[in-house]
C-alpha cells in the first residue's frame, strides 16, 4: 500500500515550512527513520525522517517551496507492495443518457482545479492554514487586521509583514487592486551596474524571522544602551586555574561566567527579566532565569537559552553552552531548545569590537553584549599597570526600565566579573 507522508506539526504556532533539501528522489528506496528531507521553519531547520520503509513513489514539492503543515509532501510505497497497473475496464457502448453525462463530466474536467496559492491557502475555517509566520500573525493582531482577509504577495502566497501593514493602512471601503508598499518585492528597477554583477536571494525562513523580529523590536520598544567595562584580570586567572585542574576535558568559558553573573544579578533587578503583556497592560516579572545565547550560525542568528541558569554550576553551564552551539551550527537544534529565553547575552568577543548597541530579543526587556577582552592600561596604587578589560553594552527597554536601574544591574554584573569569588558564593 502507499503511504502519504504529510508535513507534521513542527511546533506551537508554526503553520508552514520551506523545503530546504530533499535527500531522496523519486524511485529511491528508504528505510524507516532515514532522513529524507530538511524543512526550515521560522524557528529552525528540522530533519524529517521517513515514516515507513519502502520506495519513494512521488515527491509533491520541490526545494524552495513553502508547504503548509498537513500537506502531503511525498508518497512512499511500502515494502512488499508492487506497483501494478489496474486491469483495463470492460468497455461497452454507452447509452444516450450516459453519453450526456460523459460530455458534462468532460466539460467540468476542463475547468482549472488548481487555484493560485494565495487564494487556495487557509481561506475557510478548518481548511489549510494561512501561510504566515507567528511574528507576522502577531503584527496583524497588534494592528487589528484580520489576517484571513489578506492576499499574500510572498512566495507561494505567503503573507508578509508588508502585506499586513498595507492592509492596516488601506481604507476599508476602498478596493485595492494591487497594493504595492515600497518594501514589497515588486519588479525592481534595472541594476545600475553591469548585468550579471548582482544576485537576488529570497528573504525567508530563519533570515526572514530575524528581519521581522528585529524590526518589530525597534518599532515597538524604547531602546537605550548603557556602556561600561569590567576588569576581568582576576577572572582570567581563575579561569586558567580551573581549566588547568579539570581532568574531564570541560573548559569553562568567559561566557559561562557571564551567564552565571547575569542570572545572579537578575534576582536583585527583576524588571530586567521581564516582558510586557500589551493586551492586558501588565509587566510580567519572571522568577525563572533562562539566559539566551545569541549564536552565530551559517543559517543566521539563533537564540538558545541555558534554562534555569541560576541553579547550575559554571561547569554545567559551560557544558550546556558547548552542546547548544554545536547543535545550532549543525542545524540539528530542536525548536523547543530555541524557546523560553528571558534575557539574552550576545558574545562577539572572539571576533573583535569595542562597543555595540545590541537589539533586544522580543519579548524580553534587555540584552547584554560582551566585547573582546583586551590588555589595557589602568592605574594601580598610583602606578600605571596593564589589566585585562572587557567592554559591556547593555540595551534596555526604557518603557519599563529606567536608565539608573539598568546601570545598577550592570554594576552588579560587573562586580561579579571583577571579583569572581563573590560570584562563586552564588553557585548552587
From TrEMBL:
PROSITE patterns, sorted: BIOTINYL_LIPOYL (PS50968), LIPOYL (PS00189), PSBD (PS51826)
Domain Peripheral subunit-binding (PSBD): 131-168
UniProt keywords, alphabetically: Acyltransferase, Lipoyl, Pyruvate, Transferase
Biased amino acid composition, Basic and acidic residues: 100-116
GO molecular function: dihydrolipoyllysine-residue acetyltransferase activity; lipoic acid binding
Keyword Hydrolase annotated: no
Statement: the UniProt record of this protein carries the keyword Membrane: no
Compositionally biased residues, Pro residues: 174-193
First-level EC class: transferase
Cofactor: (R)-lipoate
Membrane-spanning residues: none
Region (Disordered) residue spans: 78-122, 164-201
EC number, as in UniProt: 2.3.1.12
Lipoyl-binding domain residues: 2-77
GO cellular component: cytoplasm
Entries under Pfam families matching the protein: 2-oxoacid_dh, Biotin_lipoyl, E3_binding
Recorded family membership: Belongs to the 2-oxoacid dehydrogenase family.
PANTHER family linked: DIHYDROLIPOAMIDE ACETYLTRANSFERASE COMPONENT OF PYRUVATE DEHYDROGENASE COMPLEX, LIPOAMIDE ACYLTRANSFERASE COMPONENT OF BRANCHED-CHAIN ALPHA-KETO ACID DEHYDROGENASE COMPLEX, MITOCHONDRIAL
Designated name of the protein: Pyruvate dehydrogenase complex E2,dihydrolipoamide acetyltransferase
Lineage: Archaea, Methanobacteriati, Methanobacteriota, Stenosarchaea group, Methanomicrobia
Gene for this chain: pdhC
